[in-house]
Specification:
Low-confidence stretches: none
Radius of gyration: 19 Å
Mean pLDDT: 77
Number of helices: 7
Largest sheet: 3 strands, parallel
Distance between the termini: 39 Å
Order of helices and strands: HEHEHEHHEHEH
Strand content: 5-15%
Structural class: alpha/beta
């Protein structure tokens, strides 16, 4: 045909085109893709059955690195265990870089702050956590987006209060992912 772009592409051609486009975008932004840092694309939890269940459509067991993961407490009483799970997952994939923990200052006053001796009991070095008290959920999301852009952070945890925090929408989650 006179216009090669008018020819329908196969699935593999579309994937190759998208990968090339993503590579150009990442090169322009100076962000290094997760697969270029010589680390596995996924991290496992050490339980074969759980790791296989988390695989989804990926070819690797476990949770993807450099990806957005959301944890929600079933009730107010479960918030502490949910926070501990988030910290343990972050510890698992942080690659010896610090963890950035961002919370709303009002929520931290109500729920409590990170407790260094408790972190040490979980096997997490308190010196490897950078804690940010944001005045509200919008500021917390902005700080999280900035933290995600930094190559100096191994993981970013943002703790937001309520069932529907202000500012947490599809645009915000897209920016974080």
């Amino acid at each position: 045909p006179a216009n090669p772009a008018a020819v329908p592409k196969t699935g593999s051609q579309k994937a190759a085109t998208l990968k090339a486009r993503l590579a150009r975008i990442l090169t322009a932004s100076a962000i290094k893709p997760a697969d270029q840092d010589n680390l596995p694309s996924h991290f496992t939890l050490g339980v074969d059955r759980i790791d296989a269940a988390l695989r989804g459509n990926a070819r690797a067991d476990g949770l993807p690195r450099a990806a957005l993961h959301e944890l929600h407490a079933a009730s107010k009483e479960d918030r502490t265990s949910t926070a501990a799970m988030a910290l343990l997952l972050a510890q698992r994939c942080r690659n010896d870089l610090p963890i950035l923990w961002i919370s709303e200052s009002g929520e931290a006053r109500r729920q409590g702050r990170l407790y260094p001796p408790g972190l040490a009991e979980l096997g997490i070095d308190p010196d490897r956590i950078i804690h940010v008290d944001a005045p509200n959920s919008i500021a917390a999301l902005r700080a999280a987006a900035d933290g995600m852009r930094s190559a100096a952070m191994g993981a970013v945890i943002v703790e937001l209060a309520g069932k529907k925090p202000r500012g947490l929408d599809l645009t915000a989650t897209r920016r974080l992912s």
